[in-house]
Structures are given as structure tokens and as C-alpha cells.
Automatic annotation (TrEMBL):
<dbReference type="Pfam" id="PF13962">
    <property type="entry name" value="PGG"/>
</dbReference>
<keyword id="KW-0040">ANK repeat</keyword>
<feature type="transmembrane region" description="Helical">
    <location>
        <begin position="173"/>
        <end position="193"/>
    </location>
</feature>
<dbReference type="InterPro" id="IPR026961">
    <property type="entry name" value="PGG_dom"/>
</dbReference>
<keyword id="KW-0472">Membrane</keyword>
<feature type="domain" description="PGG">
    <location>
        <begin position="68"/>
        <end position="163"/>
    </location>
</feature>
<feature type="transmembrane region" description="Helical">
    <location>
        <begin position="147"/>
        <end position="167"/>
    </location>
</feature>
<feature type="transmembrane region" description="Helical">
    <location>
        <begin position="71"/>
        <end position="88"/>
    </location>
</feature>
<feature type="transmembrane region" description="Helical">
    <location>
        <begin position="15"/>
        <end position="33"/>
    </location>
</feature>
<keyword id="KW-0812">Transmembrane</keyword>
<keyword id="KW-0677">Repeat</keyword>
<dbReference type="GO" id="GO:0016020">
    <property type="term" value="C:membrane"/>
</dbReference>
<feature type="transmembrane region" description="Helical">
    <location>
        <begin position="108"/>
        <end position="135"/>
    </location>
</feature>
<keyword id="KW-1133">Transmembrane helix</keyword>
<protein>
    <recommendedName>
        <fullName>PGG domain-containing protein</fullName>
    </recommendedName>
</protein>
Length: 210
């Protein structure tokens, strides 16, 4: 017997509590992606086992830009939700006492300095990248300024949360700050490089003709 998704969601909420919101978002994402795929005009190949990768690739002739944007927004939102949750509640939980050289409210995982640093840097990089994708895909949308304000506020919340649970001697926060800024820096470099290439491909006397 297969339970419907709402029943599974309610059952998981009773067991997992707040963590069940990830399951709700995932189930909603899968249903929306399924609707977008069902609207596609692609015909599946005869041997899907061998050509499945090419079949699910983006095809400008069959895939509408609006559908692709919606799917990318769902994926970016899912990644942002997971990484934010992982940063605020790090693996292993937090200490509940001030004994044996640790402080209450600090991450237990931080006792493994190298592993925790890699986790925090990678998680911050993924979180920042997903927020950048959300901001870029909603550009020129209604209330885009409010989306940017909410995104910036969430980044500040994330930064204050990891600063609160991380012992200052275990992680050098300049690396975390660099990981959070790297996606924006890379996007700016790509945009400037693309604009420079477009200008270089223009005929030298095109401006004079205009």
C-alpha cells in the first residue's frame, strides 16, 4: 500500500518535527518538476537506458525558458533551505554544558578543526551560490527589490548564526567570508568578460556608421 504525499508529510512531521519541512519542499519540487516535464513535447527515445542523459538535457527547441527558470528556482530554493539548516544546526548538535574545555552553545563538530572548516566553507559557498541564482532568476520580477532585501537579511542571519555556534579559534572566518563572496565575484567576472568579448566582435567601423 502506497501512502499519498500529504499523509507521508503529516507522519514525518510527527516524527521529525521541523526537519520535515525539507520533505515538504522536496515533495512539492518533485510534483512541479513532474508537471513541467509532462508539458514538454519531447518524445522519449526507443532505448532510454542508453540515451537518458541526452533526453533530459536542456533543448532550446522544446523546453520553454519559463519552465526552465521555474525548475532552476526550485532547485536553488531547495539547496538554500538545506544549506541554511545545516549552517544554523551543524551536524552533531551543540554543547549543553561548560565542562571539559568547551562552552555551551558551541558546535560539537567544531572539535574536528579541519573537517568542520571544510564543512563550513563548502556549505557557505553552496548557500551563497543558491541565493545568487535566486536573485538572478527573479531579476525584473515584481517585488524584486523586496526579494533582494530578504535575501540579504537571510545572509546576515546565516552569518550571525554560524558566528554564534562556531568557536572563534576553530575556524578562520576570513575563509568563510571569501567562500560567501566567491560566487558573486565569479559572476561579475563572467559578465564583464562576456561584455568585453561582445565589444571585441563588433566591426571597428560599426560605431562610425551609426
Amino acid at each position: 500500500m502506497i501512502l499519498p504525499i500529504p499523509i507521508l508529510t503529516k507522519t514525518t512531521e510527527a516524527i521529525l518535527g521541523p526537519a520535515s519541512s525539507l520533505l515538504t519542499l522536496l515533495s512539492l519540487s518533485l510534483s512541479v518538476c513532474g508537471e513541467k516535464m509532462s508539458e514538454s513535447k519531447k518524445t522519449p527515445p526507443r532505448n532510454l537506458a542508453e540515451n537518458w542523459f541526452r533526453f533530459f538535457q536542456y533543448d532550446p527547441e522544446h523546453d520553454k525558458p519559463g519552465h526552465v527558470r521555474d525548475i532552476l528556482l526550485i532547485i536553488a530554493t531547495l539547496i538554500a533551505t538545506i544549506t541554511f539548516q545545516a549552517g544554523v544546526n551543524p551536524p552533531g548538535g551543540i554543547w549543553q554544558d561548560n565542562e571539559k574545555g568547551h562552552a555551551a552553545g558551541r558546535a560539537i563538530y567544531a572539535s574536528h578543526h579541519i573537517a568542520f572548516s571544510m564543512f563550513l566553507i563548502s556549505n557557505t559557498f553552496a548557500f551563497s551560490t543558491s541565493l545568487l541564482v535566486i536573485v538572478c532568476l527573479t531579476y525584473r520580477f515584481p517585488l524584486h527589490f523586496e526579494i533582494c532585501v530578504a535575501t540579504a537579511s537571510m545572509m546576515v542571519t546565516y552569518a550571525s548564526a554560524i558566528f554564534a555556534v562556531t568557536p572563534h579559534e576553530s575556524v578562520k572566518f576570513r575563509y568563510v567570508l571569501f567562500a560567501g563572496s566567491l560566487p558573486v565575484i565569479c559572476r561579475c567576472i563572467v559578465q564583464l568578460w562576456g561584455r568585453r568579448n561582445r565589444k571585441s566582435k563588433q566591426p571597428p567601423n560599426s560605431e562610425n556608421q551609426q
